[in-house]
Structures are given as C-alpha cells and as structure tokens.
C-alpha cells in the first residue's frame, strides 16, 4: 500500500537538487579561513547568499544562516525585546511556539483574531498606537494556512518607530515573498519547509535596526549569529529555494486545485465537518478542518493505519492532546478545537492520493466518532 504524505507543513521531503548541492559542497571547510580552502568555502557561501537574496528580494548581506526557523525567530524577537526592555512586545495569539514562547517571557500586548483566522487589523492599529520593543506576526499561519495582514502591521509599527519581525517560515517557497516590499526589519524562514535540508534556518536582517545578539562567539554573520557557518547546508538551501521559486506559480495553482477537490470531497462524504480559514487568503497546500464528535488524535492514528499521514496541526505537550491555541483564539469551541485535522499538500501530492483520502476518510471518521471524545 502506497503511503500518502500529507504533512508538508511539518516538513517537506528533500528536493533532489538540494541533495546533490549538499553532496557537492559537503567538503567545504571554514568559510572564515584566510587561505585557499577558506576562500573556496566562502565563495560557495557567497553564491548561496546571492541566490537566496535574489529569491527573497533582499541584499546578500541581509541573509543570515542559522540552525532552524525556531532559532531565527528567537534571535530576532528576543534580540529586539532585549534591546528596549522598558517597552512591551506586540504580537498575536496565533503565533508558532518559536515566537509565542519568546514573547511570553516579556510584557506583551496582543492583537485579536477574527473567526476566519486572520489577525484583526483594527486591533493591530490600536495596540500599535504606542511604541513597542518589537511587533511580531507570522506571514501565514502554520495550522490554518491563513495569510496575515503583515502590511498593516508594518505601517502601524513604522508610525511609532517599532521594529517588525515577520515569521515567514510557512510562506517562503510557497508564495511570493519580497523582504524589500514587506518592509519588515527581520524575517525568519526554514529550509526544510521548502525541500531544503532540516537544520538550516534563515534570518533576514536589515542593516538597521538589528536585534541585539543573543549568542556570543566569533562575530561571524555580523555578530547576529556567530559560529562557523554550515556551507553545505547553505548551498543546499539556496538550491531548494531557487527550484521552489522557479516552479511556484504553476505549483501554487495546481495545489490550490487539488486542495479544493479534497475539501469538496471531504465535505460531500462526511457530515458536519467544520472547515477552518475557508474564504480567506490561504497558503496553497493547507486544509484544516474539525470533525465534531471525534478526537483529533484518534483521527490521525486511524488515518495512519490506513496509510494516510496527516497531523492535528497543533503541538501536543508530553503526548496530551490539547485544543489548538490557534483555533481557540479564532473562537472555535474547545471540543471542536480538539477535533482538528490538518492536511498539508505538496509536490508529491497527486489526484490519486486525494481520491484515496476521500474514499477512506468517512470510515476513519465513523470509527473515531464511535470512540468519541475522552
Ligand atoms: N514558525 C512557523 C510558522 C512554523 O510553522 C515552524 C515550524 O513548524 C517554525 C516557526 C519553526 O521552524 P523549525 O522547524 O525550522 O524550527
């Protein structure tokens, strides 16, 4: 039985171009070395920076490699918050834990969220009527896929001289992102979300203002992320991003079509299914829904035994199924928030996969509903 992978938002399979690029660059030595092999490694690193800068419309010097999207978010949010500790942070309640948990260490004022899953623009303007140490929001939500009103955030923050960090981990490689046009001061991305290697994050950081360094070390990468840079990881990330951007418009349309067929297939075959974020601007591969009366964990375990790999979408703590904070912030009831399933589609997803999911899911739902809620 072919297994169907529908958890692209968690991580995407490594692209072949990225694997080859990684292998070719895997012998690179210290790019900071003042000798031949160092210069050779640095040339590969510079080329990777230029490719990424071209894809994300920024300057090569603004590209900082780090170990994950989580690290990029932490360096930016903690670094800005620490630079002006007397001011509160401004953020949304639907951020990924990589932002949410950093924000929670500081005094924070929160925007509100609409039932559709987008951060409310009036609440952004209202919170940002005064200065904050940093205003941080995601470009697209990892659970619902809803694209967020980042332009409003940037405009409101500029009026009160507040630096902006954008968590674009889910968006980069899937929808067009221009760092220049966005106008944020820092932006986080993660290579494994677009077919690059796991363990490589990207932090884009304007020349000024920059977050205060969180890590201490040898001063590499403008001192924002010191440490010897992983050249092979950087080169593989650039190769993956170049390919993702080259195929983006065609792939976006294809995935949206397939995703909508999946949505209507599930809606037609399962009664009382709640679609989240419907009608909003969505990432192309995201479908997030609740099946009232069934536990999300039961649904994904039963799906797994039918060869379908999907997720509840929310992080569970120590194996305990908790209601998604994102759905709760959208006003979804606790029970329905615990009944959520996230299917995220990507390059390998085809029509046959969707047909099988639509065929199998009613039986999975029936069994999960019999098991009920615990
Ligand atoms: N931010 C968002 C919106 C995410 O979806 C994720 C990962 O799922 C992260 C940050 C963290 O990225 P990483 O897994 O590279 O640490």
Explain what you see:
The mean pLDDT is 96. It is globular and about 65 Å long. With 374 residues, it is an alpha/beta fold. It has a 7-stranded mixed beta sheet, with helices on both faces. A 3-stranded antiparallel beta sheet has the order 9-10-12. It has a two-stranded parallel sheet with strand order 1-11. It has helices at residues 16-25, 36-56, 69-83, 97-103, 121-127, 150-159, 179-182, 231-246, 248-269, 296-305, 325-329, 334-337, 351-371; strands at residues 4-5, 63-66, 89-91, 108-110, 134-138, 164-167, 186-190, 201-205, 274-276, 286-290, 308-309, 340-344. It contains 13 helices and 12 strands. Bound molecules: pyridoxal-5'-phosphate (PLP).
Topology:
Blueprint: E1 4-5, H1 16-25, H2 36-56, E2 63-66, H3 69-83, E3 89-91, H4 97-103, E4 108-110, H5 121-127, E5 134-138, H6 150-159, E6 164-167, H7 179-182, E7 186-190, E8 201-205, H8 231-246, H9 248-269, E9 274-276, E10 286-290, H10 296-305, E11 308-309, H11 325-329, H12 334-337, E12 340-344, H13 351-371
Parallel strand pairs: 1-11, 3-4, 3-5, 5-6, 6-7
Antiparallel strand pairs: 2-8, 7-8, 9-10, 10-12
Bound molecules: pyridoxal-5'-phosphate (PLP).
